[in-house]
Amino acid sequence: MITKLVSMMKTLAANDPARIEITDLVLEKLKNMGIITTKKSLSQLEELSTSAFCRRRLPIIMVRAKMAETVPEAVTFIEQVRENPRSVDFVSRE
């Protein structure tokens, strides 16, 4: 969806006020969500895959949900689960 939005916005003129405003809003939102680290340009969003989006977003969600104290801690936890997914035990809710 992000790449589709970027391709639609690139059809507008580079100096179009609407394109400039929307670009700033989208980049700010994605930076606040933890998807991108800097607000460079739309070109960095063209190559953003779904898996990259999820990889970057999950640690932020874990910190905000208080499942981890810091983003690096959340990344470490995710990497441990990815390496050995069978070691995770789920508690049944009966």
Structure explained in plain terms:
This protein has 94 residues and is mostly helical. Helix content is 61%, strand content 0%. The protein contains five helices and no strands. It has helices spanning 2-9, 17-33, 43-46, 50-64, 71-83. Helix 4 crosses helix 5. The longest helix is centred in the first third of the chain and has 17 residues, at 17-33. The N and C termini lie far apart (38 Å).
Broad shape: elongated
**How many H/I helical runs?**
5
Which structural category fits the helices and strands?
A: mainly alpha
Query: Mind summarizing the main beta sheet?
Result: none
Percent in strands: under 5%
List the uncertain runs: none
Q: What average pLDDT do the residues reach?
A: 81
Distance between the termini: 38 Å
Order of helices and strands: HHHHH
Percent helix range? 55-70%
Number of strands: 0
Radius of gyration: 17 Å
Which descriptors would you attach to this protein?
94 residues, mainly alpha
Précis, in short:
This protein is an all-alpha fold.
Strands, helices and their partners?
Layout (H helix, E strand, L loop, with lengths): L1 H8 L7 H17 L9 H4 L3 H15 L6 H13 L11
